[in-house]
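re: that complex we talked abt at group meeting.

here r the seqs, copy pasted straight from the sheet so there may be weird spacing, ignore it
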Amino acid sequence: GQQLNQSPQSMFIQEGEDVSMNCTSSSIFNTWLWYKQDPGEGPVLLIALYKAGELTSNGRLTAQFGITRKDSFLNISASIPSDVGIYFCAGQPQGGSEKLVFGKGMKLTVNP
Amino acid sequence: DAGITQSPRYKITETGRQVTLMCHQTWSHSYMFWYRQDLGHGLRLIYYSAAADITDKGEVPDGYVVSRSKTENFPLTLESATRSQTSVYFCASSPPYNEQFFGPGTRLTVL
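got the structure back, here u go
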């Protein structure tokens, strides 16, 4: 089936640093979503992107829908300890499928 | 409160037993989904439902059964639990062709 390549798989950063992660696919996607999962909880939607080239911010988070519709990135600026968690990208493939394809996640550790 | 809830949050059972995991959403979303999350595999879709009485298989449906008699409920049943079904199970809901919202998860251990 379709897969999303999410990189890096993990990052260790110092509080205050910026972090960037991305997701790529060999297929075209209509929607890109970014989720965060805290330990013991379900994924929580951070940002949703619907148009190629779209750049959306949510506080310290910024995400973009790639022009080719095959990639997306998420930036976190000025990281804080509560940013710790696993970040997942997800996409709705072209063709109108209601099913999402998920990346395997990036584990973020923030050292105070 | 509006949202999506799952019960139980934790469950320990034995091999061969039947187990039902419950999912309830108050948004009246048409679509509902069941995923399992395992280390190294990420989130994998088990079953999904487009509306009441409409269900379809996902990536890993074997050993699971679902039903959806009401829009707000989407129970997942393990008919005869196996150790390989030890996992964290997440339910999600969404309006058509839109973002999915996840429940808090059920951690299932099969001994």
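couple things i noticed - The radius of gyration of chain A is 13 Å. The longest strand of chain A covers residues 29-37.
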